Amino acid sequence: MAGIISFNGVEFLNTFVSLLVALVLGTLIGAERQYRQRNAGLRTNALVALGASAFVDLGMRLMGNQGATQVLAYVASGVGFLGAGVILKEGMNIRGLNTAATIWCSAVTGAFAGADHPAEALLMCGFVLAGNTFLRPLVNFIERAPIDESQTEATFELRVSTDDASRDALRELIEERLAAAKYPALEMRDVEREEGVEIVATLAPTSVDAAELDALVDDLARLANVSHATWASRASD
Question: How far apart are CA 26 and CA 107, in angstroms?
């Protein structure tokens, strides 16, 4: 009965418009994800935008701008946990980061709608779609471009295999060669193998000249007590 008495047609219409805008824009964002066959597709993004809009709208109706601000903080943290659920680790690869970020942006779109800013919600939706669509060719171009080690920052490892008797002398020689080449070793460790030991020198994260490391490895491989020598790189954290 109290709900009937307190019913306000203007506020009801305002809420209806806010929820409708959030649902439509969330659906647009989700449609792009659904087309890409991502884990969080059309319904997930639409419901995230709708839920964020409803929370913000309710906060505004109960406590005005202060209520909306308080609710926004909880929406942001809550959607963060939801986005973490779509992030998957497969071996050394991590998938779902872009989908999780899209869910977060869907929530912001809904929050704009719930705060009675439909134009800003539409603008946010447009930017999200642009980021997921028009930036894709740029990403593909960068990923397919040949890697120039001198222009990248990574962690490089030098691996040299030898016998137990030559271990200490070879470690000192590797340190001297790396120091002379101005590639100081951040760490050196021994990895026991069935046929001797492998000395692994981890260089400080920096840019290197691949030709210089190739030459250094070739020199080490020519030593009588070295059975194998190579180097590799991995992305820095």
Answer: 8
Distance of CA 157 to the CA centre of its chain: 24
Facing residues of 202 across strands?
157, 187
What are the DSSP E strand ranges found in 8-103?
88-90, 93-95
What is the total residue count of the chain? 237
Residue 131 has φ and ψ, to the nearest 5°, of: -65, -40
pTM: 0.60
Of 65, 61, 57, 53, residue with least CA distance to 106: 53
Element (H, E) at 233: strand 226-235
Beta-bridged to residue 226, according to DSSP, are: 162
Closest CA to 115 of 44, 30, 58: 58
Q: Domains plus CATH for the chain?
A: 2-144 (no CATH), 149-235 (3.30.70.260)
Q: What does the pLDDT profile of the chain (237 residues) look like in tens digits?
A: 555 666 677 888 999 999 999 999 999 999 988 888 877 789 989 999 999 999 999 888 888 888 788 888 888 888 877 777 777 765 546 677 888 889 999 999 999 999 999 999 999 999 999 998 888 888 777 767 655 555 555 678 888 998 888 888 888 888 888 888 888 788 888 888 877 888 888 887 666 677 888 888 888 888 888 888 888 876 554
Pairing of strands 88-90, 226-235: unpaired
CA-based R_g, the chain, Å: 28
